[in-house]
Write a structure and sequence with these properties.
Order of helices and strands: HEHHEHHHHH
Mean pLDDT: 85
Number of domains: 2
Strand content: under 5%
Strand order of the largest sheet: 1-2
Largest sheet: 2 strands, parallel
Low-confidence stretches: 150-154
Structural class: mainly alpha
Number of helices: 8
CATH class of the largest domain: Mainly Alpha
CATH architecture of the largest domain: Orthogonal Bundle
Oligomer: single chain
Shape: globular
Distance between the termini: 56 Å
Length: 155
Amino acid sequence: MTIELKPLARRKDDILPLISFFNRGGLRLSFTADAKELLLRHDWQGNVRELKKFVDLAAGGESGRVTADAARQLLATTRAGQSSDEFLTEKQYHYILENGLYAAVNRFEDGAIQRNLTDNEGRKTKVMADLKIDTGLLYKSLKRTGKHRSKTNGD
């Protein structure tokens, strides 16, 4: 049996209930009136998958309050992911070809860890929780980047 649905852009009444459904059990999101209006006007080319990705990204924020500006940024992020089915950019692929996959994975790990360390003001336990990594991976990355002796805020 095949069930055909109209595109999400033509089912505007489904958008806010779907957001509520995707958000259950996580950080409770609330939207400003402007943000809701923006979401209802969005064309949702990725249909429900794009909406789910939007909710996942919004729930990853710290406040749970989504403004129109935040929604615009999140929509741009979800749309960027829609432009290609690939996670890997051409630049990343060429880096892998030149340096090897292990080097690229290490570079990706190190970049994510360093960025999260900066975001969390050097709190290593927060970094491990945010990135869902263990102590070994954190310290291996810090050693590779030469930051293993950096002083942190009590962690």
